[in-house]
User: What shape does this take?
Amino acid sequence: MAVITAVDTVDIRFPTSLSLDGSDAMNPDPDYSAAYLVLRTDAGDDLEGHGFVFTIGRGNDVQTAALHALRPYLIGQDVDALLGDMGATSRRLVGDSQLRWLGPEKGVMHMAIGAVVNALWDLRAKRAGQPLWLHLSSLSPEELVSLVDFRYLTDALTPDQALQILRDAEPGRAERIARLREVGYPAYTTTPGWLGYSDEKLARLCREAVADGFGQIKLKVGADLDDDIRRMRIARECVGEHFPIAIDANQRWDVPDAVAWVQALAGFDPAWVEEPTSPDDVLGHAAIARQVAPVRIATGEHAQNRVIFKQLLQAEAIGVMQIDATRVGGVNENIANLLLAARFGVPVCPHAGGVGLCEVVQHLSMFDFVAVSGTMEGRCIEFVDHLHEHFVTPTVVTAGRYRAPEAAGAGTQMLPGSIAAYTWTAQQTDQKVDA
Amino acid sequence: MAVITAVDTVDIRFPTSLSLDGSDAMNPDPDYSAAYLVLRTDAGDDLEGHGFVFTIGRGNDVQTAALHALRPYLIGQDVDALLGDMGATSRRLVGDSQLRWLGPEKGVMHMAIGAVVNALWDLRAKRAGQPLWLHLSSLSPEELVSLVDFRYLTDALTPDQALQILRDAEPGRAERIARLREVGYPAYTTTPGWLGYSDEKLARLCREAVADGFGQIKLKVGADLDDDIRRMRIARECVGEHFPIAIDANQRWDVPDAVAWVQALAGFDPAWVEEPTSPDDVLGHAAIARQVAPVRIATGEHAQNRVIFKQLLQAEAIGVMQIDATRVGGVNENIANLLLAARFGVPVCPHAGGVGLCEVVQHLSMFDFVAVSGTMEGRCIEFVDHLHEHFVTPTVVTAGRYRAPEAAGAGTQMLPGSIAAYTWTAQQTDQKVDA
Assistant: This one.
């Protein structure tokens, strides 16, 4: 019997604030960071499970402490038992009554559990010799349903309904796997649109995005309306009349402000309006959606768990659902999220960027295409060309499409040299904050 | 100029699981704990600010790490500046863009900020020589409005509307202060109703509650319907026909289960049904409320922030609102919560118990009576007679009423001997979990 012998954690931070990459209306100076975790076993196969939570700097030490706190749940555990029933494994962590008090199912502790779940999936996919998207796509509908925690979902999605969705998508899996390997999955780029960039840089990057084959760009908005109007005009001129331009307010507005601001930008025909207000405000998103229709509302990168996604869908608050690979309770909860979206017929266009989010979330969209929604229609994954060089299997995007990864694992593994070079110390954390 | 010179943090855990005190349908074996914080200054007045987050055991180390992570925001800061504009101080912490990513405004990091805010209020009230409830009640409506972060609230509550609520309650403050000192504030007791207790113990404690002068009792439900029916029958027989009995499911049910279960218990005339489902499920609570009316729904001890309370009120999902002293961003966010409740005309009956929650939350209800809602009608504070002996100014409940505390401060300070006796070590944390 192989057991887990070590759970190593590292606080990793990249000094991205120096270049204003990633600047938006709520996050002026992020330092893209990862609270990082490596699971080791005594199986003798040299395989490790890697997982992380993406953060933007300060507090990454707290997130790392939460990973560390999960060690007693893992050390000495039977690897085959853990990986063989990932539904039970996930529920044991998410459902731990004492840890649950710290959320429940939200924030630092829930994201830590998500990173552990993702690391276990990374290990399982490596043992199977498959990339995660293909590994998940090889499971039966019954096995997939067993992975999902339906608690708090059954007024919108029952296990039987989930099973039916997955069975309906079973025919054609092989063809879709082949198609994915052939053409990849659509990407859109946020690279042109950061608030910290000059108009000249915005224009140049918009033209490059079109030339590079992306099907959509996204602009950050919400700091200053006049600036946003000028920047939207520049972008629209650069990309042409019918090219999709999404806009992203990063939670900047109250409900009345969001309605007024979006109406002022509606003439530029935004593809969607992302995070107009608090990610907790289901009713607020629904009110905004009603008032700015037909402009679609998108949110989800900060949606804390499946209960929020359920309500956003029930309230018809979103026309685009944005899952995030490291915000919720890992692969298992994201399967619940994909099933909810399929049940309500809403396309999933994941949040990515940051550090490693592209590498990880692509597996979920590709699995969705093969085994859940069965379509790429109206779907695309965010792409930002930052920090990929630190990963063992970096995202490959060519001609505006994510190429299906073939390396075994979940895409979560960073290069040892990068980990060593960007490890943050307690001494650095204790420096005074001049905010 | 006095500055903050130290932020000491301690992981404190009481082994309450040994006696099954505090056992409910979701939390079978809580170890009541506090992630505890002491602010020290060089003012030379020997005054300290104490604050804590209540948790139920495992993970208290992570919560303590989050408190520790806030040290760089505090050490070296001008005490008068911090305390003199608590609105700005609170917004600086809650609004820190990098920390905010870890929630936003929810979970471990948000609760840590709440503990710091509460510790600062403890220090401020001590410097003023007043108990916190009286200190808050001595502020002008304008000063109180300046404490509130209205971000995400203005579709339901604007600063002008809040000001009007507070101005309407200004006449009569002095009379209500006198009345509070004379008669205290109504309490209800959860002591009889823990799931781990025998029927005999339940019956004895129900009779004692009535004899002790409490105006309401509460029973935990949700593990087994037959048990709940039997226990409700015993309780109803012990307390008499019209005595209020609330029931509390601690998030155990999905929406359809909640409706069916509550309908099965409706004949016992429950005073309210508490936490029927996920605290995140605003629409679920609203659906349950519609289907079990006129039985009232109560929730809030796990409501992560003011945005959730706003929606629960907007959706008419709750007939009773339950704030918690250490779940949200501290005194400031709870003032927002009290104002929201007043705006929607819903009574606030705080969650308490745990360790120290009674000591702290009573200040908020008493402030609400004096300066916000202006009434105790339909209001009561939860009371559980556990662990008060560890506090410097323990709650005093006599004849079923909280007596207004007169000691300066926020009620947050634990005895040094208790802190020393129940300090938890990293070595204990690392023990294997046999869940």
In short: Residues 4-130 of chain B form a domain with the Enolase-like; domain 1 fold (CATH 3.30.390.10). Chain B has two domains: 4-130, 173-418. Chain B is about 40% helix and 15% strand. Chain B touches chain A through 74 residues (CB under 8 Å).
